[in-house]
Amino acid sequence: MHSGMSDFITADHVFLHNPATTQEEVMEFIAREAVSLGYATDAPLLVQALNTREAEGSTGMVSGIAIPHAKSSAVQKPLVMVLRFTHPIDWETMDKQPVTCAIALLIPDSSAGEPYLRLLSKLAVALMSSDFCEVLLTSDDAEKIADTIDERL
C-alpha cells in the first residue's frame, strides 16, 4: 500500500521566504499558486472559499503555524502547500502568536468530506509534534519539508 500522499505535496509546493504581510495576501498567494500549479481553475473563487472558512473560525494553530483550508469547485485535485513568511503575519491563533508558516489544504468540492477531515486531523496531530514543527519552521530544504508532511498524511 502506498504510504503518504506524495501527489499532494512536492518540493515545488513549498514556498520559503514568502513576502506576504497580511492574511489577505496569503490567501491570494495560495489561490494564485494553486491555479499556476494546475490544481485549481479560479483564483478569486478560491480566495473567497478560504476567507469564508476563516470567518467560521480561525485556522491559526500554535507555534506560529496556521492551516488555511477550503473545499471548492475551483479546486480540481487535492493540494497541500506550505508557505513560510519572511515577516510574521497577524493571525488569530490559540497561543496568541503571529503566524510564520502556513500549511494550506485545498480539496475539490466533489471530494467526500471524510478524507478531507481525516487529512485535517492528521495535520493537527502532526502539529503536536515538536520535531514536525521544527522542520516546518526552520528547515530551508523544501524537499525535506514536503517529505516531512507527506510522511504524516
Automatic annotation (TrEMBL):
UniProt entry keywords in alphabetical sequence: Phosphoprotein, Phosphotransferase system, Sugar transport, Transferase, Transport
GO biological process, one term: phosphoenolpyruvate-dependent sugar phosphotransferase system
Signal peptide: none
Record-level Gene Ontology MF annotations: protein kinase activator activity; protein-N(PI)-phosphohistidine-sugar phosphotransferase activity
A Pfam family reported for this protein in Swiss-Prot or TrEMBL: PTS_EIIA_2
PROSITE patterns: PTS_EIIA_TYPE_2
SUPFAM superfamilies associated with the record: Phoshotransferase/anion transport protein
Single GO cellular component term: membrane
Domain PTS EIIA type-2 span(s) in chain numbering: 7-152
InterPro entries named among the record's database cross-references: PTrfase/Anion_transptr, PTS_EIIA_type-2_dom, PTS_IIA_fruc, PTS_SugarTrans_NitroReg
The name this protein goes by in its record: PTS sugar transporter subunit IIA
Originating species: Muricaecibacterium torontonense
Lineage of producing organism: Bacteria, Bacillati, Actinomycetota, Coriobacteriia, Coriobacteriales
